[in-house]
Amino acid sequence: MKNVISLFCIFLLTGSSYSQKHADKVITINEQKKASAWVDSTYNSLTLDDKIAQLFIVAAYVNKDSKHIEEVTHLVEKEHIGGLILMQDDILKQVRWVNKLQNNVKVPLLIGVDGEWGLAQRFSETIKFPWAMTLGALTNDTLVYQVATKIAKHCKRAGINWDFAPVVDININPNNPIIGNRSFGSDKYNVVRKANAYIEGLQSQKILSSAKHFPGHGDTDVDSHLGMPVLNHSRARFDSLELYPFKELIKKNVEGIMVAHLNVPAYEKNKKIPASLSYEIITKLLKERLGYKGMIITDALNMQGVAKNFPFGEMDYLAFKAGNDILLFSQGVKTGKEKIKDALVKGEIPMSRLEESVKKILFAKYHAGLCNYQPISETNLIKDLNDKESEVLKEKVFTAALTELKTDKNHYPLNKKKKYLFLPLEDGDYHLFYRNLKDKYPILQQVTLEQLSSGKYDSKEFELIIGIFKDTETTVYYSHKLSNVSKNAINSLSKKYSTTLCNFISPYSLNGINLDHIKNIFLTYQNNNYTQTSIINILDGSLKAQGKIPITIGK
């Protein structure tokens, strides 16, 4: 019970604004009594099967066939699972379906979503906020709080209680295939500052957060959706780097921590057991040594990092036995329930463990307002999730993140009296940037690599503006690696021409480029209308770049 009360205090003391750090003690005591009464009453009304069912969250795809809809409905209405993770497609249909399901349950469902950059991570008709890497470049953490607050308001409007965010992995591996732009960067102190602001933004609207991916997914070169990464670091290294954000956020009372499907030999000797199923990592490290009292949630149990070695249902049982409270994206609910029940009845797992987890979940539901559930209104839903305020905030954030990596006083700001050539590289859209440049610098003209190689343009007469463009808006997993053609072009042309480089993609793309000969380098982190417009004011000197690169590039 001690852990449960501690979790309740976490909810009460962290549901505040960015500037307000403590809740009123009288309100806290009164609210605690109300919450405890609801939790105890609800818990005592549940059968053993139903208590176990509260541990499970399954995926709900509104765009799948009727068989899937029937299966999820059965798990909710007959198996009495604890919650859903919403996956994709039509947000209006999703709200309609959730309303219907919530109307037919004894205990309201926790509704979660992967919303690191907003609901657009799953629902394309909603507003997409900047990547964590872009937020990591901000020097004003209040903007991170404001973004997370907006995301939280959108979650609440759509009937979502839990945003499985933020990513707090320290991304120190440039070749990381799964974290990358989802991380706030490679500086552990900046990661903690940004994560704390993000979490407080969610909590300001009573949306649950989930710091991920414990014990740290930043230095991996394998996608845990496809296989199980191995981190062969020492305990000392983990303690000083990978675990640092989690330790700091535990001090700040983060409500949830998600555990990754990683093999970590420093803590778990069995190579087949990922952190998400490891008693040594979850119970002994996270709960006992680090003293975490909040909710512990597995990463999705359909991922190959765990599913390659363990059958569905079996992994659910092992995950609970290891110390997890929430079994996310379960695909073996019935079998998992049976195995957990059998272990409880036989005394292999104490009943107190089940009580601890279920009461944590019920306190979370109380905190989210599910004790007084009200159906979500469908009226103006899409309009409300595409508000002008959010668009204004996005523009502000993208502008504030613009970063001046280096400049040469003899070549910056750009001069209207000089002759400039513009060379776009890679395959992303660049036309707004080019139009804006041409409006500002009338003698500028677009060229190709072939034209530059022909010797037609004298380097003494022209300076060169190179832009790196890829589509960074459709998916987070786009490649940040430049083609050898682009790398070679930048390296050779910057020796010949006085060059300004504008990079509209991940800063990791600069690895392998000789930056010494480039006169001016600017980073925008993402390629969109906001960055293609705002950077013009940086180039002409009318706006000072405020951002700071959140990772290490080259030397």
State the gist of this model.
By secondary structure, the protein is of the alpha/beta class. It has helices spanning 2-14, 25-45, 48-53, 66-77, 91-102, 132-136, 141-157, 188-203, 235-240, 244-251, 279-289, 304-307, 314-322, 333-345, 351-367, 381-384, 388-401, 431-440, 449-453, 484-496, 529-539, and strands at residues 56-60, 83-86, 110-113, 162-163, 211-214, 256-259, 295-298, 327-328, 403-406, 419-425, 445-446, 462-468, 499-503, 520-523.
Word description of this protein:
The chain is of the alpha/beta class. The protein folds into two domains: 375 residues, Glycoside hydrolase, family 3, N-terminal domain (TIM Barrel, Alpha-Beta Barrel); 138 residues, Glycoside hydrolase family 3 C-terminal domain (Rossmann fold). 41% of the residues lie in helices and 10% in strands. The chain has 21 helices and 14 strands. The strands form three sheets. It has a six-stranded mixed beta sheet, with helices on one face. Strands 4-3-2-1-8 form a five-stranded parallel beta sheet. Helix 2 crosses helix 15, helix 7 packs antiparallel against helix 17 and helix 17 crosses helix 21. The relative contact order is 0.12. About 2% of the residues have low confidence.
Structural class: alpha/beta
Helical content stands at 40-55%
CATH class category of the largest domain: Alpha Beta
Strand order of the largest sheet: 9-14-13-12-10-11
What's the quaternary structure here? Answer: single chain
Keywords summarizing the entry:
single chain, 10% strand, 2 domains, six-stranded mixed β-sheet, 555 residues, Rossmann fold, TIM Barrel
